[in-house]
Amino acid sequence: MIGYGFMGAAHSQGWRVAPRFFDLPAQPEMAVLVGRNAQAAQAAADKWGWNEAASDWREVITRDDIDIIDIVTPGDSHAEIAIAALDAGKHVMCEKPLANTVEEALAMRDAAERAAAKGVRSMVGFTYRRVPATTFARQLVADGRLGDIRQVRAAYRQDWLMDADGPMTWRLQKDRAGSGSLGDIGAHAVDLAEYITGLNVEKVSGLLETIVTERPLLGEGIGLSGTASTERGTVDVDDVAVFSGRFAAPEGGFSAVGSFEATRFATGRKNSLTIEVSGSLGALAFDLERLNELEFYDATLPSTEQGFRTILVTESEHPYLAPWWPAGHMLGYEHGFSHQVVDFVTAVRDGVSPSPSFDDGLHVQHVLDAVTRSSDDSGRWTSVG
Amino acid sequence: MIGYGFMGAAHSQGWRVAPRFFDLPAQPEMAVLVGRNAQAAQAAADKWGWNEAASDWREVITRDDIDIIDIVTPGDSHAEIAIAALDAGKHVMCEKPLANTVEEALAMRDAAERAAAKGVRSMVGFTYRRVPATTFARQLVADGRLGDIRQVRAAYRQDWLMDADGPMTWRLQKDRAGSGSLGDIGAHAVDLAEYITGLNVEKVSGLLETIVTERPLLGEGIGLSGTASTERGTVDVDDVAVFSGRFAAPEGGFSAVGSFEATRFATGRKNSLTIEVSGSLGALAFDLERLNELEFYDATLPSTEQGFRTILVTESEHPYLAPWWPAGHMLGYEHGFSHQVVDFVTAVRDGVSPSPSFDDGLHVQHVLDAVTRSSDDSGRWTSVG
Amino acid sequence: MIGYGFMGAAHSQGWRVAPRFFDLPAQPEMAVLVGRNAQAAQAAADKWGWNEAASDWREVITRDDIDIIDIVTPGDSHAEIAIAALDAGKHVMCEKPLANTVEEALAMRDAAERAAAKGVRSMVGFTYRRVPATTFARQLVADGRLGDIRQVRAAYRQDWLMDADGPMTWRLQKDRAGSGSLGDIGAHAVDLAEYITGLNVEKVSGLLETIVTERPLLGEGIGLSGTASTERGTVDVDDVAVFSGRFAAPEGGFSAVGSFEATRFATGRKNSLTIEVSGSLGALAFDLERLNELEFYDATLPSTEQGFRTILVTESEHPYLAPWWPAGHMLGYEHGFSHQVVDFVTAVRDGVSPSPSFDDGLHVQHVLDAVTRSSDDSGRWTSVG
Amino acid sequence: MIGYGFMGAAHSQGWRVAPRFFDLPAQPEMAVLVGRNAQAAQAAADKWGWNEAASDWREVITRDDIDIIDIVTPGDSHAEIAIAALDAGKHVMCEKPLANTVEEALAMRDAAERAAAKGVRSMVGFTYRRVPATTFARQLVADGRLGDIRQVRAAYRQDWLMDADGPMTWRLQKDRAGSGSLGDIGAHAVDLAEYITGLNVEKVSGLLETIVTERPLLGEGIGLSGTASTERGTVDVDDVAVFSGRFAAPEGGFSAVGSFEATRFATGRKNSLTIEVSGSLGALAFDLERLNELEFYDATLPSTEQGFRTILVTESEHPYLAPWWPAGHMLGYEHGFSHQVVDFVTAVRDGVSPSPSFDDGLHVQHVLDAVTRSSDDSGRWTSVG
């Protein structure tokens, strides 16, 4: 695993826990944790149970005893590491967003295709596809239970930037983070909308906006710790992204209308990734803040009996659920990371390409790029890719 | 009262009930109900308790024993009737939308200003301002409880058109209805967002879309009753409107970002007018399907105690509530029409201009017009008015 | 109408509004409002639109131009008035609880049966049976959608007594009110549970408790207005009632287990009458604070698709709904009183006994009495009646 | 760890994960898993990551390299194992219920006290105390935010027995399970109510009922797997328990009224442990099916602003939360087991008695016993202990 921030903890929990509940075709070993700061990397390795720590990822990706590289660094280093690892014949799991730019994402996709030809696998970490409720939502759509999709609303709302005196962090700097709420959380909203509906966004019209344009610098470099400084730095990424989209129409059908929002200023919404899909036969609604629940509306029932139904997606027949707890026992945020490990390891062993692929990650990057271009072009409808 | 559709029943209930609970400065008398079809008008007058029926509104507006004209006809006749009534010295209450076009709305606003100079009053019927929860929401914002407004989301979602074989009605014809979901229900979303925040939308970027473009004609004219026909007619109004907006920035402040939706294809949403406002100190959320409740988030509380609070807006200290029932006894849809009567009659007696004015109605019309123009111009940002 | 408290306003609204929406077989005329205080009665009659006021109910019940007596006085006068009115050949609608004691209720039931033999009708005002969601709940049970009923939970929770310094009122005096929360609101919980399930409570085990035993007297008599006094009076009715019950078993079946609560100390619950019914095939849940909604759980669906479904009971196919507003437009507290008028007038015209009958009211009185006896007997199971 | 059923998986996850997020004063090693069936025990040990397996717990508790015994067997063996382990000087964590009878629980409590005198620690596994929302609820009560407690309602509702043709299992046999829903889940409801309020139940009045009295035996022994048999066995434990309780009154204060329910027939409720506490200054409500949320009602706010507030108990300032994820990232069922490990290991290292103690477990057993005695005595109020 390369990297050891918040995502490192989540991925580690996935590797640690998955084999204890699921029957995997191979037992993953938590071999090496890599971080630039050797001391911090060692501390993280000890804490999270990795066998050893290292500070040079280039060396690690050449080691014969390493099969999989799991990348959890900030987005600006994804391309370099992932391409090198794939070229070195290592299977790669890469956190989202795939990259900070379309160019990097393209290069990564190409590397993934080259590698796949040699049986080397890659996956991008849109973990929210692996919340049982969202996986089940996709099944309902795929089974035709919603009929023709007419409208999709997807929003990822947080509020951790709402304090205008909150400090600068790398996530607010374009050169590190690529974009703001759009790439960080909007990417999830786009991917989840496409995953559940099985439809791709083709064009967008949108707005990126920075609400708080200057924030206090921290005395000791930019970061979440360090001494507060009286100086202020410029936030050059978006705080809020709102955009409309049109999905590819099924043959002879309607091009569904999408509404998207990504924000870190939604007061009171902590980690609310919501999606609502309206179809000709039914509807679905999901909120990540109640991740064990799926709202399903079946419009084929008698009119007196229709209503949004809160399905507790905790039955053993629901996706991923059987190895966990009895019905009604809740899963949490990190369970998706175990499911991701299950699917990745299974695909690698089965010699098939895991999903979502780097190509899927590239597509999302194209959507985000089109939103940025539309925002720069007075909101005009802009084609994806 | 001119007109006797669904809105006629609602306005009649307002006139009938308001004086039984509120202390009005004058007792309204339900004098004449006017409808083109004399027989139907008489039946409605009998049913709803109007003293008499008439078929010629031009005659009625000249009668000396008539003080107030209440207009509940489709939007295409609002301008003609309202202007004539105002010019005849009658106080006018006019259902929303004020008119089908900006031109008509402008003429009505001018007539209203001319009339006001002579002490003749006018009001447009954005009744949802008079749901106690929305009135209270505005008070919270006005009291500074939300701080600076950063984002506003307003959506009006219904699903009564979701059946692609549902028949044509006048609401789906541009020459009668002016627009589709945009003017019919989007107007409410815009007005309510502006009312609660106290901010006006200045520019918009949007999309109008017709999902079902052809529908069965009814054998006997266009209407909700009549024999079904095998012919199909063209729907030339929008089924769905999605648009972004920017609100006028307070001095030195931020221009709040708005997201709007109006749709009659939101499967499972029957009459869901939702609004969520995010501010620097708090947030509000409201849903017309739970109209006695207001969600309030106070971000000034200790972090461990913050949460969206479901306020039952049924306390005697809440707006409009004291004359009704004890706390916890629910109000319904039609109570807003009683509150509208109270405010209108009180303003007329006090010799002040009631709110919302025809000028407010014109402004909303400008917003809707800008959305239409933006939609026609590839979604480009378009100024209001 | 005899009486003019809070219930007088509600019943007046029922008489006033019902004929404006429903097609009644006869047009009720709001003839006389009777109150001991002539001046107050006249004011109420003027306010609520009764043709005249009177202060002597005995005289009014003999008038030839009066067909119906509607009793909305406190419970201690129900028996005398109702029996006299029935014996005088007037149809009687009587607010719940039917009476303050079983003895009175028995005499009323007997009078009702005598009267019925002569075509004179009577009904007791358990209005919450006429909330469309509860009526629909009963239909679902009657249609077998819940299967065998195993458990019923009914609670009526308010909090208006939670302030220990709140004043004495007649509702806290046994000689006026008969009992406290048990008779005032527990009666509704019992009646609604029985109405929805179609099953009668046969025995109970319960507890009555007074939480605040002394309260400030008001200087000018006992009432909600008047000068506060330094003296305190003794509350001799229950603040809280909690009891279990067993319902009559269907043949060869199970005697469903009931749990009941009535309280005026449920902090934050304003008017929350909740009921949840668990059956072998499904479940229902209702809360009067969201009275347009019914939760329905269909356990015959595939396990992955089961969930509590929030049915908006506002479709024209739902009970009582067709004459009101389009789907999704909410009804409020007072609509039940219109429905009550519809059913009462219809039954009177059709020459059938309206429901709930005085006998139903007597039965509820028996249940309350059994709870009181059980509470006095250390909670022992006590037979109803 | 002795035992390897469902609880074995949960406890294993606790031991495995706790040190990866929390800073423990000592690193627990997952040494030996003990099960009567050697092969199955070995499989479980491999799966869950225990170093070795064993089949003789008596031998294991004497091993010098073992410091802690974690008991997750059915209740009928708790006493024997726990007493032996404590006497052997091992710290003991024991799943709830502490025992199947008061007698056993008494012996265990005595053994725990003997052991404590020698610095040997013991704890009973009421894990739901360690859901952050319930721990925080207790803090709010302890801080006086609810004022005087007037009413407590606690219910644990499941529905996994609702199918009358579901098979017999050991949980339905009195000699194995001690009791039915009462001991299995009612114990949690009692403990959580007492934990949050800080008050003990002193007397109870209750009912135990078996709804389905005969169930199909399984051909191959009694268990959840095996061939179905045509024979039926008798269920001799309760399916449903409903009871009232009175809590110990604070000095000069009120003895709060409790309402309790434990059922496995609550159609649609999968694992719903709900508690609502009404106090003179506020109220709390919790549902285990939404375990990251706590509803808090602050009655000291202005009346217009009161409402149940949904606190997402995921802030770093909330109990147990800091080492986990950012705000709004959900915890699941098993996190309580990690928290239990943290508290247990910390107490052992600090040389203090962990909580809840065996004495707390004994107390709950006394409450359950009193409910049983009351049920056998026609529901009469029965003292606890």
From TrEMBL, chains A, B, C, D:
Lineage top rank: taxon: Bacteria
InterPro entries: Gfo/Idh/MocA-like_OxRdtase_N, Gfo/Idh/MocA_oxidrdct_glycsds, GFO_IDH_MocA-like_dom, NAD(P)-bd_dom_sf
SUPFAM superfamilies: Glyceraldehyde-3-phosphate dehydrogenase-like, C-terminal domain, NAD(P)-binding Rossmann-fold domains
Domain Gfo/Idh/MocA-like oxidoreductase N-terminal: 1-116
Protein keywords: NAD, Oxidoreductase
Domain GFO/IDH/MocA-like oxidoreductase: 137-284
Protein name: Gfo/Idh/MocA family oxidoreductase
The organism of origin for this protein: Microbacterium marmarense
Organism lineage string: Bacteria, Bacillati, Actinomycetota, Actinomycetes, Micrococcales
